[in-house]
Amino acid sequence: MMFGEVPPAQEVDPARRIMGLETEFGLHFDAPNSRAVTPEEVAGHLFHSVVEWGRSSNVFLTNGSRLYIDVGAHPEYATAECDSLSDLVAYDKAGERIVQDLVATGETRLASAGLEGSIYLYKNNTDSAGNSYGCHENYLVRRRADFKAFASVLLPFFVSRQIVAGSGCITRTPHGAHYSFSPRADHMWEGMSSATTRSRPMINTRDEPHAHADLYRRMHVIVGDSTMAEPTTRLKVGSTDLLLRILEARLALPDLALAHEMQAIRQIAHDVTGAATVELADGRRMTGADLQEACLEAVRGRLDDVIERTEETEQVLDLWERAIVAVRTGSTSDVETELEWAVKFRLLERYRNRLGCPLDDPRLARLEMAFHDVSPTRGLFNRLQADALVSRVVSEDDIVRATTEPPATTRASLRGRFVREALASGRDYTVDWVHLKVSGTQPQTVLLKDPFRNVDERVDVLLAALDG
Amino acid sequence: MPQTTSSSSPFEEDAPEPDAPAAPTAQSSTDALDSLLDEIDDTIQTNASQFVRSFVQKGGQ
Q1: Please, what is the angle between helix A230-248 and helix A311-329, to 10°?
Q2: Which residues of A touch B13 (CB under 8 A)?
């Protein structure tokens, strides 16, 4: 039985946007003395405790987020719907804690299967063989007939965003190694399409709004790096949201159309001096910093107009500008605690100087892996942050709360409450982004089509019936 | 359900983000970085090649 009338969509302030981040974690079982074991087998043990309470390795959590095993045995965490940058950063960071908390039980189970070793989870984008996995950004946008034209305006922004929001990496080539802005850049194959693993596009056009489809669609961005540094994540998503607001107000962004997007994203990635220029469709040549500055200026030009000057917006604009200056001047001291690629570059360079080795030394590859290890005790990113060598933008308390409590202001609040109470009741239930269902002889389902709605009488009735 | 325990927060709950990043002075941050590298040096150097090569996983999206 479908429960009650689906209420009409609410009127929503254009500055409010539903956003989410999906992260595929690298899964590494280090067991030099045990038999060969597949990532699938390790993932199975890692998710044993999840299956125990959730009866599936694909679950929604009490914090409204989704946890599952994705293609390639990657543990994946998709944040609940968030409508502020601070919530999004907190829920993204909470995901690191949630997957890390599966490790101890996973290792114990592997050991009892005769596999003594350690599980490492990396929030990074490539394994040692160069396979890539990702961080996918989701932005709810108001539906319009010309989505492809609308989104393609953002491609030059996404091609160059790596200079401010990249995670940084050592790139190994037959001619030696160099430092690059983004590990993801080399794995992009086209600007926009509906494909995912087969031919990775920067913007995926698959139309799954998980919401009123006549009003909304989802912009699914897969070009970004997974980022652990909170200021970088806030800038990555915040800058994108600001440009979307301009486009949604039906205002133009500067025409920066690139002649060859896939060539450009690689050219920019591989020149950390920022001097590389890329060709625009109109024949001009610009650097990554030029492209980002044009986007930043477009946003500044709309301040107090379509873009309200909030503290969070000011913080995004401030770091965005300092990041562009850092790339232009080659001086990262002003951003070395905030931009992930700069944090990592500094660490790698310091260690390389100690060892007196070239950049392709395996010990530096090992250091990179340690950087992305999500363990609070082993992981170098976490150690650097604990030593105040990385700045923070959300509090520890917010992250801890986000591991169990849903965001208060979106549909996720209803889902989180439902999961908590359904689990407590012992009843069979199923849940996805838009459905809450209590199973049994008289199954009852609530359809939640408005991701902005955090209060719904139908859910109250459904929850009251759980005890009956 | 996964749970984490809270550790002490370096920030006040409602404290606004300071204008300048809360970075220590250059000298002390250099020291902190070096002592961290001192601490992890053995782990990083031990079987680094083998450790790195053993991490291979199919691609995702």
Answers
A1: 110
A2: 395, 397
- Taking CB atoms and an 8 Å cutoff, what residues of chain A touch B8? 396
Beta strands in A44-156 (DSSP E): 58-60, 66-70, 74-78, 118-122, 135-142
Cβ–Cβ gap A26/B55 under 8 Å: yes
Q: Which residue in A185, A130, A135 sits closest to A158, CA to CA?
A: A185
Place of tokens 């010309």: A146
Long-range contacts of A33-41 (CB under 8 A, 24+ apart): A33/A116, A34/A114, A34/A115, A34/A116, A34/A117, A35/A114, A35/A115, A37/A110, A37/A115, A38/A73, A39/A72, A39/A73, A39/B57, A39/B58, A40/A73
- Calpha distance A279→A264 (Å, rounded): 7
Q: Which of A366, A458, A368 has its CA nearest to residue A417?
A: A458
Strand-pair category, A135-142 with A19-24: antiparallel
Which among A72, A369, A389 has CB closest to B60? A72
pLDDT score recorded for residue B18:
45
pLDDT in tens, A14-45: 889 999 999 999 999 999 988 989 999 999 99
**Are A155 and A330 within 8 A, CB to CB?**
no
Sheet strands (E) in A31-151: 58-60, 66-70, 74-78, 118-122, 135-142
Q: What's the ipTM?
A: 0.92
For residue A186, give the amino acid letter. Answer: D
pLDDT value at residue A468:
64
pTM across the whole model: 0.93
Q: Residue B37: its pLDDT value, please? A: 97
Distance CA(A50)–CA(A106), nearest Å, equals 10
d(CA A114, CA A35): 9
The 10s digit of each residue's pLDDT in A374-390 is: 999 999 999 999 999 99
Domain boundaries, chain A: 412-466
| Active-site position among A13, A70, A186, A225 | A70
Cβ distance A399 to A444 under 8 Å?
A: no
Q: Which residues of chain A, if any, have pLDDT below 70? A: 1-3, 196-198, 468
Task: Tell me if residue A467 is catalytic.
Answer: no
DSSP E strand boundaries for A143-294: 169-173, 176-180, 190-193, 201-204, 216-221, 277-279, 285-287
The beta-carbon neighbor of A128 closest among B45, B55, B61 is: B55
- CA dist A211 and A150 (Å) reads 20
Q: What is the DSSP letter of A54?
A: H
Question: The tokens of A213 are what?
Answer: 């489809």
Residues ≥6 apart with Cβ < 8 Å to A314:
none
